[in-house]
């Protein structure tokens, strides 16, 4: 009985560790990957001084067909202090 309890405890610890790694990836690593992809796209399309910013008027553009939230990104020139759709270009419309 003691062995079974030990194995159950180890299983719980393993599941919690897997959940923690998944949460770190989803909330920290994945947004960094998204930003780098959009940054590269902006620099390739418009030039090295352009960068990506999340649209302050952000909305879910997935169309409601999925539970995943899709964010709008803007390609902005280097001299824009606050991103907006008049000074920047919507990245998804390139």
Walk me through what this model shows.
With 94 residues, this protein is mainly alpha-helical. It has one domain (2-93). Helices cover 48% and strands 11% of the residues. The protein has one helix and three strands. A three-stranded antiparallel beta sheet has the order 1-2-3. The longest helix is centred in the first third of the chain and has 45 residues, at 2-46. The protein starts with a helix and ends with a strand. The mean pLDDT is 81.
Topology:
Elements: H1 2-46, E1 51-54, E2 73-76, E3 89-90
Antiparallel strand pairs: 1-2, 2-3
Based on secondary structure, the structural category is mainly alpha
From the spread of the alpha carbons, the general shape counts as elongated
For the largest beta-sheet, the strand count, sense and barrel status come to:
3 strands, antiparallel
Strand composition percent:
5-15%
Count of individual domains: 1
Rounded mean pLDDT score: 81
Number of strands: 3
Distance between the termini: 63 Å
Radius of gyration: 20 Å
Oligomerization status of the protein chains = single chain
Fraction of residues in helix: 40-55%
Unreliable stretches, pLDDT < 50, 5 or more residues?
A: none
Output the helix-strand order. HEEE
Strand order of the largest sheet: 1-2-3
The helix count comes to 1
